[in-house]
Amino acid sequence: MDFKQLRSFVAVIRYGSFTTAASKLRISQPTVSTHIRQLEEELGTPLVLRNAKRVEPTASGYKMYDQAVSMLAMHDKMLQSKKQHESDAVYLGASTIPSGYVLPELLASFCSARPEASFVITQDSSQTVSNGMASGLYDLGFVGMPVKEDAIDCIPFCDDRIVIVTPNKSRFRNIDRNDREAIANMLREEHFIMRKAGSATRAMGNHVLEQLELEESELNVFAHLNDQEATMNLIEKGLGIAIMSERAIRSHVDAGWMLAFSVPGVDTVRQLYVLKRKNVQLSDTAEAFYNHVLNWEEESD
Fold it and tell me: Where is the HTH lysR-type domain (predicted)?
């Protein structure tokens, strides 16, 4: 039994005709007939009396009609409530690092003052989020690289640092962290887990490689991934190394599961940005959240 079958049944009883019910519901008459037959088979009793003049409910049909009307009314009310809730929601697009490691703090601090606020959050690459902002999919966007679009305000609100991440094994612990050539050799020799194109972390990783005078073709690429947890699991299992956000791996390094290398003389600090379309009126909640982001002071560990 489903709501389509119930709607067909209620319409047939209400209008006394399969043809009229089908017209009102904008479906075919055979579909209405099928819905009624399926209900009767499931309930094990006839629900309508079919005659030449008008379709009438059976005794079971009368009882079923009242129940079906109540069920449909409740269903419609729930859908309306859901649509209203979603229309009030703030739609956010966020790349991997902001969505996983920054937005939770932002949302927690914001919702403590506005517990009624609701959000619909989509995670994707920085480039895809930027495209979504330009096409109006999101109220606000959060990305790891600057966006140069005339119609979008792109404002830095916190920073991040890119590091080389390895398993916590003796051969990595013995590498001189101040020796650029040793770090470059590590990148050449070890299995490397690469972020997919379109990622801001991938772009910063390319910057690190350039500073070390390494070509991507020199790397022994083991896998291409965008999933942070999957990447960290592979590293912890000793299957490769990667260039990642320090925010993503901080707790794993603190726990002693992985090592993080900076590159001497290479600035790997990047900004994280909040995006907002120019000349577009946000809802009160979205505007309040935007201002909350701009005035946010990150808690120190």
Answer: 1-58
Q: How far is CA 142 from CA 89, 152, 183, 193, 250, in A?
A: 17, 12, 31, 24, 20
Q: What is the pLDDT along the chain (301 residues), one digit of tens a residue?
A: 788 999 999 988 888 889 998 998 899 999 999 999 999 999 999 999 877 578 888 888 888 888 888 888 777 767 765 555 456 789 999 998 899 899 999 999 999 999 989 998 988 888 889 988 988 889 999 998 898 888 999 999 999 999 999 999 999 999 999 999 999 999 999 999 998 777 778 888 888 999 999 998 899 998 988 788 889 999 999 999 999 999 989 999 999 999 999 988 888 898 999 999 998 889 899 999 999 999 987 654 4
How far is Cα 181 from Cα 178, in angstroms, rounded to an integer? 9
CA angle in degrees (0–180, nearest 5) for 66-71-77: 130
Burial class (CB in 10 A: 0-12, 13-18, 19+), 36: buried
Nearest to 118 by CA among 158, 95, 89: 89
Alpha-carbon distance of 182 to 258, in angstroms, equals: 18
What is the C-alpha to C-alpha distance for residues 36 and 8, in angstroms, rounded to an integer?
7
Angstrom distance (rounded) from CA 146 to CA 148 = 7
Please report the beta strands in 95-146, taking only residues with DSSP state E, as ranges in sequence order. Answer: 119-123, 140-143
How many angstroms from the chain centroid is the CA of residue 266? 32
For residue 276, the cross-strand partners are 140, 153
- Of the candidates 195, 200, 205, which has an alpha carbon nearest to the alpha carbon of residue 129? 200
